[in-house]
Amino acid sequence: xxxxxxxxxxxxxxxxxxxxxxxxxxxxxxxxxxxxxxxxxxxxxxxxxxxxxxxxxxxxxxxxxxxxxxxxxxxxxxxxxxxxxxxxxxxxxxxxxxxxxxxxxxxxxxxxxxxxxxxxxxxxxxxxxxxxxxxxxxxxxxxxxxxxxxxxxxxxxxxxxxxxxxxxxxxxxxxxxxxxxxxxxxxxxxxxxxxxxxxxxxxxxxxxxxxxxxxxxxxxxxxxxxxxxxxxxxxxxxxxxxxxxxxxxxxxxxxxxxxxxxxxxxxxxxxxxxxxxxxxxxx
Length: 283
Known about the structure:
Oligomer: single chain
Membrane topology: Multi-pass membrane protein
Pfam families: Rhomboid
CATH topology of the largest domain: Rhomboid-like fold
Strand content: under 5%
CATH superfamily of the largest domain: Rhomboid-like
Organism: Georgenia soli
Radius of gyration: 27 Å
GO molecular function: serine-type endopeptidase activity
């Protein structure tokens, strides 16, 4: 005869949450019947489901796409808000004495070959509160429409390459023997003009009236030529870059949309690099 330790026979096993073994739970998932602690419980149409079953069910649901192929998302445009927040934080840093933010990240053709990060970093700098407010307001208006339509990665590519395209245009149109070679440029205007071009093409692609956008772009171009201190070169470069990318994004065949979008993004980026290298080589 063998002895049996107390509690080995007839003692029910205490149910614990698989994700949190230290937590006892008598509530079970309606799908897998596993215990689920309060942190892992998700309300369902009938009873409670565990977080694993809910995630598995979500993964099986086909991704909803917009007309232009962007992933349909609920909520605010996260990328647009993030860019605005970055610009505001950088602007506040510009106002701090001794940080030297502006001279360290501003763009001018004379510095671009040795410090190429300035082609992009200057787009997050601004020359004043009004300059910042106008650019961020325009970014919010256009970005809140384009980001959901294009999807996040294409919107980021559009914004970043348009900003760089604006700096490249400043470089290409500057005179190496004149003061324009050492003239500094700041602001998100080049990127914003790229978004202007993009929303015009997107609205045309969707069959909507784009006259107001065209008038807005024309007025801003005129202001760039009339008002002193505004870099019309950056506006032009951003607008052309944005138009090239947006045309590929908006008019790509549906079956090959991702391939065309990636190819166009890489091609535009390489073209900007080639133009920059060729320009500096010719100086």
